[in-house]
Amino acid sequence: MSSIGPVLVTGGNGFIAYHIIAKILEEEPGCSIHCIDVNVDRNRHDTPNVHYHQGDLASPEDVERVMQIARPVTIFHTASPEFSDAPVTAYRRVIVDGAHHVLDAALKVHTVRALINTSTCGVINDNHTNLIDATEEMPILRPPQQQRVYCVAKADAEDAIQAANRNGGQDVCGLLTCTIRPDLVFGERDAGTLGKMFAVARQGKSRFQMGDGQNPYDFIYAGNLADAHLLAAYALLKAWSKPPPADASARVDGESFHITNEEPWLFWDFQRAVSALTGNPTEPRDIVVIPKWVGLTLGFVNEWVAWLFSGGTKPANMTREGIRFSTLVRTLNGEKAKRVLGYRPRVGVQEGLERSVRWFMENEKGN
């Protein structure tokens, strides 16, 4: 197995990046790793060969500066604003413009061989329709079908990165790219989805359920997602300097891969499992079912109240998008990643939840 270093991780202080870096250090302890992020004070690895650089992907100067310092062979492109909290302008500046800035700087530095892009399965889902056993062949959605600005931006970035594969042609020594599409990611240091579920559990509110609760969902533990990223990186580096394989079904570069834990859970069972691990189990008789239409109505009212009181600057705590998100079926077909990358989830959902909730309990403010 060849070295993947030096490595550059965009969004290097995010929680997914933290797990990717941990996996690199496990595989190659001496690997030189550089990170670019707007906030370099969180999720740090206290290791001398991991270097953190403050910078904004929306700034081509920042990206080029860090790229020239790192001179990476491999780039893990994970940077993205938190999809539920960021202002709309941040999506295009960071996700789309940032992707172009990374690609431009990578071509200038002449050292990069592999770029692994972290996208989302949301690019093929409109957040209104159930997604069942979805494969990578499903089309990327565009407006008006796709109304989520975050997903439109992710799709545009994915297009740009895939188009840059082999420098847009068949160049055997050109930059090789691929895209990883996870479903709902959770793990230690996840201040987004799992952090919010943990807060709900600690408040004793996990008894509330939107919809009938019979919607299976694919989750992915961040440690398993990191495994998939490294498998993709090694596969791209192995393919570098070689023409595309005759068997197109074995190709890694220019491809997208769905990554899951391969064990769908009912969405609301997942939330209640978090609650149980915090010491607040919910008995079936205590579950309060709120019909989906009621939730959507409450979300609409909350959105307008938040808009009125904040002048449109702060999102509502409850939104129609969030209600839809928690009541849809959303499962992925992960056969391509298993066949081409050799990916297998090593940590089950239950074990991943136990690890994650334990971390939140140990790091809860006030403890």
From TrEMBL:
InterPro entries, A to Z: 3Beta_OHSteriod_DH/Estase (IPR002225), NAD(P)-bd_dom_sf (IPR036291)
* Biological processes annotated in GO: steroid biosynthetic process
Q: Where is the 3-beta hydroxysteroid dehydrogenase/isomerase domain?
A: 8-279
Q: Which SUPFAM superfamilies match?
A: NAD(P)-binding Rossmann-fold domains
Pfam families from the entry? 3Beta_HSD (PF01073)
- GO terms for MF: oxidoreductase activity, acting on the CH-OH group of donors, NAD or NADP as acceptor
- Under what name is this protein listed? 3-beta hydroxysteroid dehydrogenase/isomerase domain-containing protein
